[in-house]
């Protein structure tokens, strides 16, 4: 995504927020939505100051996790172990792919909750009645994951395959991180480029996207009600930055549910499961 802040070069308060997000989400990276917000004047700092309490006590993560529970998902044929071996994928490689998928199954609903809370604060700034709620356990940290592939450094065929999964982000193609991580296994990625897009577009997947969005939208007001009044500092972002964010999250409302569904389908194909539904253990593997 253009106009974002790279994790490796983040400094000061932005770097501190990135570190908190990694800890509270339980994943070893921050998503593009946070990197984009960090490049807008005061947007990330203001948003995090306002919504962080719901993530510090685990309420937002738990609500997001529950929203993704039990979605009815499509599937692709399991990939035989012999095929994975022929693609030079070791047991460690297979575990890495499953960990990547687990991270997106976990992080995408949390990002949707974060975006939903921020959007309501931008569009409905009135202070809600505060609801007291007990803290809950935070997600356990997932293991380190591979870096996202640099699309400009990939052979043209692989780049073209990845762009089959691209969405429009304010007039520019945006390839989600899931596919950029899986690009480290080109044979797997080329296979997925053939078999996965039809499943992501079928009625069952579309219904799962709509269901997850509806569940998040229904859960946001309850989580917002646990927040304290909006702090006076950092200041609210300028209107232009806020409106740009509202445009960006239109794409995230498309890609985040897709990450949950796609990751679950890929997990099922790797482990050979059928009739896949998302369970707590899928988001929090041991």
Commentary on this structure:
The chain has twelve helices and two strands. It has 286 residues and is mainly alpha-helical. It has one domain (7-283). α1 packs parallel to α3, α4 (59-67) packs across α6 (91-123) and α10 packs across α11. The chain is globular, with a radius of gyration of 19 Å.
Number of helices: 12
User: Could you tell me the strand content as a percent range?
Assistant: under 5%
What is the overall shape?
Answer: globular
Unreliable residue runs = none
- How much is the average pLDDT? 90
Helix content: 55-70%
Order of helices and strands: HHHHHHHEEHHHHH
For the termini, the CA-CA separation is 32 Å
Number of strands: 2
What gyration radius follows from the Cα positions, in whole Å? Answer: 19 Å
Q: What's this, in brief?
A:
The protein has helices spanning 12-25, 32-38, 43-56, 59-67, 81-86, 91-123, 156-162, 177-182, 186-200, 203-224, 239-271, 280-283, and strands at 167-169, 172-174. The chain has 286 residues and is an all-alpha fold.
Q: What layout of secondary structure does this protein have?
A:
Blueprint: H1 12-25, H2 32-38, H3 43-56, H4 59-67, H5 81-86, H6 91-123, H7 156-162, E1 167-169, E2 172-174, H8 177-182, H9 186-200, H10 203-224, H11 239-271, H12 280-283
Helix pairs in contact: 1-3, 4-6, 4-10, 6-10, 6-11, 10-11
